[in-house]
């Protein structure tokens, strides 16, 4: 029986070899010209003068790496900015306040490249700062406010000839507050592990203006992140890292692009695809 099984296995092997060879003019020159599928689940995470792009690994076993592209618009011409074997790439050339659209293509060991990813994904890098200090406006009015557009500590007073504070710090009878003027909004997003945990500003849930007052306020709590919607339609976020009765220390990020919520992801329906002709290879 052993001999019979070996003979059958050998015969089958010979038949398969003949079939494979007959299907190719030259077996030694066999070439795979089928491209991989486009990567899925493309996402962006913004920082200071950078945008990180991530995606899910392709399932094909012959995928060798990924090409990352950017454009000024979703339907525009895409330019190659880098390649990687991993499922993430950081665009260190991103300028703060500029919207960039990103797409990713997979390529295999034979150089076949997929279509661009179908997700509509953009990132808008924004400035940030760490360990900024402002002080109680009752005792130190000239250094109690912060102007995000100037990246600067300013007087709290909205009537100042030179500055307009987006927020200011207050110790009111032992309770500590973050104040904003009536034409600005604020809300407490709760405790966070770091400044980056809150990735997008909401459009609802803001603290109301109480009747007869000209400021809105929330209690200042260490470890909490707060979103501020400024009077000129920009979003900022701060996270309190240290707090005393006289001083508040915080990390901050500010979106330069008017009306942009820092990070917005939108899945594109499956039938909507980027035409491959717009893809530009370097």
Question: Can you tell me about this structure?
Answer:
The chain is mostly beta strands. The chain is built from 1 helix and 19 strands. Strands 18-7-6-3-4-19 form a 6-stranded mixed β-sheet, with no helix packed on it. Strands 8-17-16-15-13 form a 5-stranded antiparallel β-sheet, with no helix packed on it. A 5-stranded antiparallel β-sheet has the order 10-9-11-12-14, with no helix packed on it. The N and C termini lie far apart (62 Å). The relative contact order is 0.15. The N terminus and C terminus are likely disordered.
Write the layout of secondary structure elements.
Elements: H1 2-22, E1 43-47, E2 50-54, E3 63-71, E4 78-84, E5 88-91, E6 99-108, E7 120-124, E8 128-135, E9 145-147, E10 152-154, E11 167-172, E12 175-181, E13 185-191, E14 215-219, E15 224-229, E16 235-243, E17 247-254, E18 265-266, E19 279-280
Parallel strand pairs: 4-19
Antiparallel strand pairs: 1-2, 2-5, 3-4, 3-6, 6-7, 7-18, 8-17, 9-10, 9-11, 11-12, 12-14, 13-15, 15-16, 16-17
Helix tally equals 1
Poorly predicted residue ranges: 1-27, 263-282
How many separate domains? 2
Over the alpha carbons, how many angstroms does the gyration radius reach?
28 Å
How far apart the termini lie comes to 62 Å
Helix and strand content put the structural class at mainly beta
Total strand segments: 19
Give the biggest beta sheet.
6 strands, mixed
Average predicted local confidence, pLDDT = 83
Q: In sequence order, what are the helices and strands, one letter per element? A: HEEEEEEEEEEEEEEEEEEE
Strand content: 35-45%
Sheet with most strands: strand arrangement? 18-7-6-3-4-19
Approximate helicity band = under 10%
Tell me, what's the shape?
A: elongated
């Amino acid at each position: 029986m052993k001999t019979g099984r070996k003979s059958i296995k050998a015969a089958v092997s010979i038949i398969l070899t003949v079939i494979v060879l007959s299907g190719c003019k030259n077996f030694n020159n066999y070439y795979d010209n089928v491209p991989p599928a486009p990567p899925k689940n493309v996402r962006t995470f913004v920082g200071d003068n950078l945008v990180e792009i991530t995606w899910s690994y392709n399932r094909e076993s012959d995928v060798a790496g990924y090409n990352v592209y950017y454009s000024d618009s979703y339907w525009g011409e895409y330019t190659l900015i880098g390649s990687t074997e991993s499922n993430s790439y950081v665009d260190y050339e991103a300028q703060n306040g500029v919207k960039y659209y990103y797409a990713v293509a997979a390529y295999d060991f034979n150089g076949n490249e997929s279509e661009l990813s179908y997700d509509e994904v953009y990132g808008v890098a924004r400035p940030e700062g760490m360990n900024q200090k402002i002080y109680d406006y009752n005792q130190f009015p000239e250094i109690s406010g912060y102007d995000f557009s100037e990246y600067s500590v300013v007087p709290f007073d909205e009537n100042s000839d030179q500055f307009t504070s987006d927020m200011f710090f207050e110790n009111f009878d032992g309770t500590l507050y973050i104040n904003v003027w009536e034409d600005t909004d604020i809300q407490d997003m709760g405790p966070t592990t770091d400044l980056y945990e809150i990735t997008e500003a909401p459009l609802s849930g803001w603290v109301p203006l109480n009747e007869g007052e000209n400021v809105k306020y929330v209690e200042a709590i260490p470890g909490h992140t707060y979103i501020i919607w400024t009077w000129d339609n920009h979003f900022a976020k701060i996270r309190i890292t240290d707090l005393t009765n006289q001083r508040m220390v915080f990390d901050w990020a500010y979106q330069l692009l008017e009306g942009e919520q820092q990070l917005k992801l939108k899945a594109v329906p499956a039938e909507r695809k980027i035409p491959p002709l717009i893809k530009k290879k370097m």
